[in-house]
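Archive record
______________

***
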Amino acid sequence: MPTPMFLTALTRRARELPDAPALTWRGRTVSYRELAAAAAATRAELAALDLPTGVPLCVPARKSPETVALVIACLQAGRRVLLPSAGLGAAALDELCMQTGCSHVLTIPASGPTGGTGEARLVMAARPSGHAPGPALPPGPGLLLTTSGSTGTPKTVVLDTDGVDRFLAWAVDRFGIGSGARVLNYAPLNFDLCLLDVWSTLAAGGCADLVDPDIAMDGSRLVAVCAERKPHVIQAVPLFFRLVTDASDRPLHGVHHILLTGDTVPVPLLERIAETFPGARLWNVYGCTETNDSFLHEIDLAEARAAGAIPIGRPIGGVHARVVGPDGRTVTGSGAGELLVSTPFQMRGYLGRSTVGDAGHRHDGMFRTGDLVHRDEFGLMYLTGRSDRQVKVRGVRTNLEEVERVLLTHPRVREVAVIAEPDDTAGHRLHAVVRGTPEARLNGLGLRVHCAAGLPRTAIPGSFDITHDPLPRTSTGKVDRNALRRVGHPDITHPTEEYAR
């Protein structure tokens, strides 16, 4: 996330390394000189819009150098920038703007200033702005990141400026990102992974190789990008490495660091990663948007084979961690419970009506991750699950109850149960069992369209069972999802294809 310190560093890079590559995108290279010129042109156009002062601006995270330049321009103008998923439905986007007080949504076409035209073409759309409770926004520029986007109204995270600066410095030092270094960016621009992939890289004078979302599920084209760009650092979810290792018929040399994040990695996949990227150091990185990276573990293949799993490791320097059992007591030594962390990088708080402050997510001053872990006798942590009904779909944390809530807003839907099923590629795939009203003629396509207005693509069920019969229930009156799993279902539609954390 850019900060005043980041903007100063970027200005220095443009002065000292004007012709060095800053970004690559769809076969073209954007130098630091061009990126600075694009940001300046966009900032001038932004000033001419005479937008209200003191309110955040919303920039949907459509990956491109133009969007990066637009974000930089907004920050140079002293603005806070809300950077939501580009795939967020219109209704959910309006609600998010209401919650955070954003008055306008800004976009810029890919043929804008870094595309060779020399002219910015800023597009502005008004949105209903509200008054967001929770912590007041600190003065100065900065990004407002949203959590995974697994709900129609994702939580907005206000990051701490000093914490972001500490993270940028840590990432640059730990993974050797400096002038001339290349870092592959696979994640969408609104994901916290971009703090390392894009913003740390630009601060250090390196080059961020932006992967086009249009090829994100094409293993052969991802292999071609790796072979052509020869990145020094690759950070991505396991899905990326599964696609690349399946498609590659030769080793890909030159990668110094592989960062695995966002989900668990099966040992067989880990072995294929090591074969495909010989010489690369393999790291398992654990964190969340609210705290940023918290744990780091350098993977040893022999140890992973022996254990049959990969630990998240031990806390990064300055990070404090605690395991709390179901009784609320701290677990000392080996044992299991919910993971609590406190990091030098973590957020100031949440912003928005749906999450007033963040008191419910803290315990004795530490952030409750909601992740269940087991700590072994050597102090290594292993993830074992979630404390709520959240699962990872293609690396994105997805709230099953929110998916059900959106489906229940359909006027002809009476009951819903959303089930997460294990999937070798996606981690999980979602299946919805939907009971319609007697006169309803529901189908999977119509339900998917309904979901798209309020959910990101990863949260849209990939298949549907449609019935007029009541769903089975437990003795307490709740839908019996275990019974639905035992019954099984036809696969009506294919899983949604999406990527990232």
